[in-house]
From TrEMBL:
Domain comment, as recorded: The J domain is necessary and sufficient to stimulate DnaK ATPase activity. Zinc center 1 plays an important role in the autonomous, DnaK-independent chaperone activity of DnaJ. Zinc center 2 is essential for interaction with DnaK and for DnaJ activity.
One protein family per Pfam: DnaJ
Binding site for Zn(2+) 1: 159, 162, 216, 219
Cofactor note: Binds 2 Zn(2+) ions per monomer.
Name used for this protein in its record: Chaperone protein DnaJ
PROSITE patterns, sorted: DNAJ_1 (PS00636), DNAJ_2 (PS50076), ZF_CR (PS51188)
Domain called CR-type: residue spans: 146-228
Record: residues binding Zn(2+) 2: 176, 179, 202, 205
Lineage: Bacteria, Candidatus Woykeibacteriota
Length: 363
């Protein structure tokens, strides 16, 4: 997946000043804060905006980004998660460590002085679980009319014993010793530009500032257990090969009682032996005899609802298309059409008598 350009995300030019970057961030971050923006991809956008700001507002990171693009922050160069290495000359490897990206809500908090200035939920709690991506293959007809499927999703679920807290019954969480309850730790990194300090989410408590004293015996304190979810999902009529459907909260449970991520299901549609699909219309090729083409007749053509009779008018040319309204792919509350293209089969192995007759016809 190619990442969006940080300048583009903030809607600024490559030569933007620090003030311009700040003001662009202020506008964008407020507009897409998940407490305000209720669209499905708000959280993703918010994350992007904060990531872009985190890099572009830091002179060293910005310089690295201008030179190396997204490679500067992990990605292409493996082995240095959250950082990158650069070969300065023969035998001179310089390792950068930017400490990964901080929690977008932390950046926001540092900038605005509040986690959410909108009076919405505070986000100090545990992180939502990861999204899951699966593929499902369905027959052509099920894509045309929609279907329901029973699926089993292997995933982490919130621990039933401790309801996700990770604490043994009767025990209480205590202040995290790593971050002293702050939820973040500072890290000093050395680079050729000098030392700089980055703040990152505390690895011990995951940002909650608390750890459990006595761990839940079932989930060993993580608040979730490996399990699977059986559920019935509805695949809407009209889906096409390669479409991805999002099912809310069918992803992984977050640790320490964090909510569920989403499930993204990419649909593969098995091609039909007779029909080709274009959009919501389907196409079928119907062979007809030379005589049917010349004098007309009735043929049976297949549709998704079974065979129907199609009247061929006299003098029909090969390649003529007939439209069967409403015999295509269902979608929303309507249906596409079926197009039947006739193909005239030229007669073979004619007797001399038949040939004579045709020659007569030609005149
Ligand atoms: Zn548990
Ligand atoms: Zn901690």
């Amino acid at each position: 997946m190619t990442k969006k350009d940080y300048y583009e995300i903030l809607g600024i030019s490559k030569t933007a000043s620090d003030t311009e970057i700040k003001s662009a961030y202020r506008k964008k971050a407020r507009a897409h804060h998940p407490d305000v923006d209720k669209s499905a991809d708000a959280e993703k956008k918010f994350k992007e905006i904060n990531e872009a700001y985190q890099v572009l507002s830091d002179q060293q990171k910005r310089e690295a980004y201008d030179r190396f693009g997204h490679d500067a922050f992990g990605g292409a160069r493996r082995g240095t998660p959250g950082g990158f290495s650069y070969q300065y000359g023969p035998g001179v490897d310089v390792n950068f460590d930017f400490g990964g990206f901080a929690d977008p809500f932390e950046i926001f908090e540092q900038f605005f002085g509040a986690r959410s200035p909108f009076g919405g939920s505070a986000r100090r709690g545990p992180r939502t679980g990861a999204d899951l991506h699966y593929e499902i293959t369905i027959p052509f007809e099920q894509a045309a009319f929609g279907t329901e499927k029973n699926i089993e999703i292997p995933r982490h679920e919130t621990c039933s014993e401790c309801s996700g807290s990770g604490a043994e019954k009767g025990s209480k969480p205590v202040i995290c010793p790593t971050c002293q309850g702050k939820g973040r730790v500072q890290q000093t990194a050395q680079s050729i530009f000098g030392n700089f300090v980055t703040a990152r989410t505390c690895p011990t408590c995951g940002g909650s500032g608390e750890i459990v004293d006595k761990k839940c015996p079932l989930c060993k304190g993580s608040g979730r257990i490996r399990s699977h979810k059986e559920t019935t999902i509805r695949i809407p009529a009209g889906v096409d090969d390669g479409d991805t459907i999002r099912f809310q909260s069918l992803g992984e449970a977050g640790e320490k009682g964090g909510g569920y991520g989403d499930l993204y299901l990419t649909v593969r549609v098995v091609p039909h032996k007779d029909f080709k699909r274009r959009g919501y219309d389907i196409y079928y090729e119907q062979p007809i005899s030379f005589t049917q083409a010349a004098v007309g007749g009735v043929v049976e053509v297949p549709t998704l609802d079974g065979n129907v009779k199609l009247k061929i008018p006299e003098s029909t040319q090969t390649g003529t298309e007939f439209r069967l309204r409403g015999k295509g792919i269902k979608h929303d509350s309507s249906r596409g059409d079926e197009f039947v293209q006739v193909k005239v089969i030229t007669p073979k192995n004619l007797s001399s008598k038949q040939k004579e007759a045709l020659k007569e016809l030609e005149k």
